[in-house]
Amino acid sequence: MSIENLIWLIPLPPLLAFFLIILFTNKWKGLSHTIGVSAAGLSFIGSMIVFFSAIQVEHFGEGEHIFASSINWLPTGEGFFKIGVLIDPFSAVTLFFVAITIFMIFLYSVGYQNYGQPKGDHDHMGLPPHGATIVDEHGHSHAVLSVEPMYSRFFAFLGLFAFGMYTLVVSDNLLTLFVGWEIMGLCSYLLIGFWFAKPSARDAAIKAFLTTRVGDVFMLLGLAYLYSVTGTLNYRDIFYNAEVMHHLSETITPIFGLSTAGLIGLLLFIGTIGKSAQWPLHIWLPDAMEGPTPVSAMIHAATMVSAGVYMAIRIFPLLTAGWHGHELTPTMTFVAFIGTFTAIFSATIALAQNDIKKVLAYSTISQLGFMIAAVGIGAYVAAAFHLITHAFFKALLFLGSGSVIHGMEHGILHTGNHSVDPQDMKNMGGLRKKMPITFWTFLIGGLALSGFPVVTAGFWSKDEILADAFGHGQWVVFITLAVAAFMTAFYTMRQITMTFLGEPRTKEAEHAHETTWTMTTPLVVLAFFAVTFGWIGVPEHFPGLGGVLPNWFHHFVSGTLLEHPESVEFSWIPLGTSLFVALGGLTLGWFVYKDYKAGQPDPLENPFGKLYPVLQNKWYFDELYSATFYRLADWISGVFTPFMDQVVIDGILHFFARSTGVIGNTLRDKFDKPIINELIGDGTAALVQKGQVLKYLQTGRVQSYLFGTVSAFIVIAALLYYFF
Amino acid sequence: MDFLNTHLLTTILFFPVLTAMIVWILPSDQVKAIRWTAFGGSLIAFIFSVYLWMNFDPNLAGYQFEEQYIWYEAIHSTFHVGIDGLSLTMVILTTLLTPLAILASFGIVDRVKAYMMLFLFLETGMLGVFLAADLIIFFVFWEIGLVPMYFLINQWGNPKGERELWGGIKISSRNYASLKFMVYTMAGSLGLLLAIQLLGVLFRNYDLVYLTQRWTSLDPNGTLMGVSTATVKTIVFWAFVIAFALKVPVWPFHTWLPDAHTEAPTAGSMILAGVLLKLGAYGFLRLVLPLFPEQSAQYAGWMAFLATMAIVFGAFAAYGQTDFKKLVAYSSVNHMGFVLLGIAAAATKIGTEDATIALNGAVLQMFNHGLSAAGMFFLVGVIYERTHTRNLEDFGGLFPLVPVYGGILIFTSMASLGLPGLNGFVSEFLVVRGSFPLLPIYTSIAIIGLFFTGAYILKGIRKVLHGPLNEHWAHGEHKLTEINLREIIVMAPLMALMLYIGIWPTGLLDVINKAMSALF
Q1: Is residue A426 a contact partner of residue A497, using CB atoms and an 8 Å limit?
Q2: Alpha-carbon gap: B350 to the closest alpha carbon of chain A (Å)
Q3: Mutate to test the interface with B, among A705, A719, A721 (most CBs of B within 10 A)
Q4: Rounded to whole angstroms, how far apart are CA atoms A282 and B104?
Q5: pLDDT value of residue A699
Q6: Residues near A715 by Cβ (< 8 Å), separated by ≥ 6?
Q7: Are B400 and A218 inside 8 Å of each other by CB?
Q8: How far apart are CA A370 and CA A485, in angstroms?
Q9: DSSP-derived 3-state class of residue B170
Q10: Do residue B316 and residue A640 have CB atoms under 8 angstroms apart?
Q11: A148 touches chain B (CB under 8 A)
């Protein structure tokens, strides 16, 4: 089979799994997860074959050195809109991390959803499992974890989710990218609201879908715009085509004086803002933690939010059209601002969260901000690099946090105290001894997130972004991101310290338990990549290491676009900054939280003063939106529209109806009765009375009406027959 | 077979009437036989139209399978029927939805015979409009379709509910709704009939092809009956537009729709949303654009304005409803707005590639909305039949009780929402794509409606399926039962088509695309 045909097949196994499970196997849990995991495995194998074939091609990405194939899809007048698959350097590396993380998440879900455990005593569809009681051979009863009641359904949804992401990655055009994009939107809705009977989960699901949809409708407009200007949505035909790009960047639109490319880029970028949870559309992502933890990993690392950055990198030529390497274009300034602001903004919120998953959620938003900022200053390779390393270590961290929660739930079932929140870090502490594999892998992930020097992947990618910001002279971006990186290291160490170090702060934490192999294996695999993946992108001039390992990543991914970006010159300032913020943040975090005891206020509460509740409440953005947009929408739909329809429009109609009645009655009372009836006599009066009787027919005698209709048909038929 | 090949259109057209006659002969107490006969008859009509589809040549311009009979010689009107890619799409939709609607009505126990006969007459009425190639025939069938629907709402509609009018007068809701539907459409028909008469008197002929050719080649600077041609054309144009706009329905003529839908029986709503609304849009495509290209271009901005209002306020209104059926009814206003937006955009620069794409989108949207609206109304009916309430506040958390129904509802809702991968997306994208370069501002405003489409669809799912279980429906006599096999069979073909068109719209769009290229 040719590679091109194989690429078409990559997204299909998870889709097939979705339909098989939904339609046929949903009653059998084991069979369903076998289908789901095998499907993810098949796609994984296919992706690896494609990836390794791609890296063996010389000058991959240039001219014809790509894997592409397409077919006609939508007829458009004379021509066709084509859809197809494309693997160029950027989609090849994306495919690599997507395949690994998705496969690991599938495997992990088997354990996380308690496969093999008994059915819960009081479990219902739509609620998380509450645990079951079993009696051992000595007659003692134990509370144990119970299996998820909608176990099969979970794998079906994960399958559809994976299908959406694979479709997005292998697409050769923005429309099928959008198809995958929206399918993931649906899946995030279904999976965040997986425990739909919980009002919080239900509302979080809707929030996620609608907030991202704000971005999506703008993106759709951007697609329509781009398509109508260029006549295509194919990446290669637009972004790899100097003539088209030149045309797009030279024509000026009436809106803010942007070039056509700049305006289209902006519209499409609003889609990224929604999907990658950038300020001001970031509000859905923390709430998305309502879903089961594998879903959080799926959304925050492997698929959904990565999709937003993926597109931002794809449309890089549009965003940067007219840029010559110095002054940022207006669109780029906007992108850089959004990214940088989001990076620091959500880092501040992460400082004050106590929910283990919420900290990670805000750190995701912040890290995505780093990538977007990198795109905005013209460093798309750095953005792509951070996208991938982040996917590995953030998937690891989420799955690790899921493992922690699972361990805590074990402790809760042991003590029977269900008032303890298994996700609250204040209730943890000392878990390193109870859950060693989880601890070590989580530590690796946390260090990668903090950018722990040299060893971890996160260091190399984050350093590259800072170096690019510095190299391009973007001082504001550079300093802001450095501060955000410092906070990242700080809150990550805070999280590690509160969760794993010190002594257990509750009985539940004392009885926590390491999780099963299906959960720990993915942790180990991801931890491997969270370390090693950075080594393929070591800059040439890095002291000591540069040149020992080739900067493979930069060379390979640079081939995606026509112009190959130069690596920035080495400077000690960004490197020193990187080292300082990572190590400084980690040390400070450990120092502040190492003696944190149960019942104490958070050590940051005093120094932060009144700012602390503001951070805890996420700068009150949810409240702000409720007071403005939601209320406006409610008013338009609940008050204004009914008024317009029922009072104004129907009022006019009723006025006509009433006037007709009044005129009719007046004529009858003032003309018919007194004049006609008087003059002509009883004959007409009788007719009028007949009319009165006839009127009542309308209320019931359908047969007579039917008779009328039928007779009409018979007459028509007879006429036809006669004239034939 | 030979007879069938030469009389295929009249066979399809009158087969439902023939079936109705058979139903008439059956004894009234043989309810089962009546139901199955009606279903079988409409199914055969569908099979005929599939046969038609397979023998249709999309590459030919103009009518195919034409039949022409002498009908009303005195006014030079002939019984002329024919089919092209546009009408073929609508005929398939009609003949597909009718058997499904009849199958959906198997729960009807009151006066089954009359009900089924009305349904079959309704099918012929609608088919006649799509097949007519003569304006008088067009008008006759246009009116015939009204009558059965009036009685279906008036007689089999929701028996509960009262409506207070002015001065404290109260009438039952279904009387109000059916009368509003009837009078409203009749009001539009009046102008339509006069306009058709004018054309007929001018050219002493009602044949559509002939009329189009003569009418559009009139000297624009000349006079007709003492008035300048341009003025006459503008007046006639508006007569047509209003008649069709009422039917689509376009804002602000849409208020009959939620009333009619709420009161109509389930199957009535399916056909009303699925097919009857398409008659209006079909009128725009078949008559308004071909007969009045200049006027359409001139007033395209107005049409686009109304379409945008329908899209935006249809979505807002749907979002504001607490009645599940009204929510779906308003969604029709929202979705049909896209059809008109596409038509209005195409009218600005007819014949260009953008215009063709917009028209492709509009026609496909008609077909897609037929599928999804029929499906949605049916699903509302399924739950109404069991709970006897449509109030969204009375439901809640029903998903665990009815997982299959829930899955089907989410699927159909997503098609209605325009999720990529399902049918609605393809047509909405084509409309937006075609309209954007022609009417950028209206298209940009319309996407607000697109956003709120998501909001109201999710609201429906949220209130019915999700959240804490409303215990009322969990136990005892109120216990909600799962969707049954017959009901699944009604939904299955709709869902299969939604998915199929979402993934592979190429086949259907090819026919539409060629028809639109040939027509304009």
Answers
A1: no
A2: 12
A3: A705
A4: 44
A5: 47
A6: none
A7: no
A8: 9
A9: strand
A10: yes
A11: no
The secondary structure of residue A564, as a DSSP letter, is: P
On whether residue B420 sits in a domain, the answer given is yes
Task: Count the domains in chain B.
Answer: 1
Q: Is A632 on the interface with B (CB under 8 A)?
A: no
**Are B147 and A709 in contact (CB < 8 Å)?**
yes
Closest CA to B256 of B186, B164, B161, B315: B186
The total number of residues written for chain A in this structure: 724
Considering only the beta carbons, identify the residue of B14, B255, B458 that sits closest to A210.
B458
Exposure letters A607-631 (e unless 16+ CB within 10 A, then b) = ebeeebeebbebeebeeebeeeeee
**Which residues, 6+ apart, have CB-to-CB distance to A277 below 8 Å?**
A284, A285, A305, A308, A364, A365, A368
A723 touches chain B (CB under 8 A): yes
User: What would the 3-class secondary structure string for B250-301 be?
Assistant: CCCCCCHHHHHHHHCCHHHHHHHHHHHHHHHHHHHHHHHHHHCHHHHHHHHH
List the single residue in B114, B451, B506 with the smallest CB-CB distance to A702: B114
Q: How far A173 CA sits from the closest chain B CA (Å)? A: 14
φ, ψ of residue A27 in degrees (nearest 5): -80, -20
> Which residues from A are below 8 Å from B462, CB to CB?
202, 206
Mean pLDDT of A636-664: 84
Q: Residue B459 falls within a domain, yes or no?
A: yes
pLDDT of residue A700: 46
Domain that holds residue B324: 292-485
Which residues on chain A are in Cβ contact (under 8 Å) with B166?
654, 658
Q: Average pLDDT, stretch A194-208?
A: 89
- CA distance linking residue A590 with residue A51, whole number of Å: 40
Torsion of the alpha carbons at A334, A336, A338 and A340, rounded to the nearest 10: -150
If you average pLDDT over residues B96-114, what whole number do you get?
Answer: 91
pTM of the model: 0.90
Flag the least confident range among A135-144, A382-391, A542-551.
A542-551
| A221 in contact with chain B, both atoms CB, cutoff 8 A | yes
Q: Which of residues 357-396 of B touch A (CB under 8 A)?
A: 357, 360
| Tens digit of each residue's pLDDT (9 = 90 or more) over A553-576 | 888 888 888 877 777 777 888 888
**Residue found under tokens 């105290």:** A417
B161-192 per-position pLDDT tens digit:
787 777 777 888 888 888 888 888 888 888 89
Q: Model confidence at A458, in pLDDT bands (50, 70, 90)? A: confident
Partners of residue B148 in chain A, C-beta under 8 Å? 709
Predicted pLDDT at B141 = 92
What confidence tens digit (pLDDT) does each residue in B343-375 have?
Answer: 999 999 888 888 999 999 999 999 999 999 999
Mean pLDDT in chain B? Answer: 90
Average the pLDDT over A320-326 and give the result: 79
- Which residues are CB-neighbours of B309 under 8 A, at least 6 positions away? B251, B252, B337
Is B188 a member of any domain?
A: no
The DSSP line for A68-127 is EEEEEEEEETTEEEEEEEEE-HHHHHHHHHHHHHHHHHHHHHHHHTTTTSPPPSS--TTS
Mind listing the pLDDT tens digit for each residue in B412-459?
999 999 899 899 999 999 999 999 999 999 999 998 888 889 899 999
B425 CB within 8 Å of a chain A CB: yes
Mutate to test the interface with B, among A160, A167, A196, A210 (most CBs of B within 10 A): A196
Q: Which residue of B has its CA nearest to A650?
A: B255
pLDDT band at residue B9 under the 50/70/90 scheme: very high
B61 assigned to some structural domain = no
CA distances from B291 to A394, A399, B189, B209, B519 (A): 62, 65, 18, 10, 11
Nearest to A371 by CA among A399, A340, A350, A349: A340
- A543, with CB counted inside 10 A (0-12, 13-18, 19+), is exposed
How many other C-beta atoms lie within 10 A of the C-beta of residue A683? 8
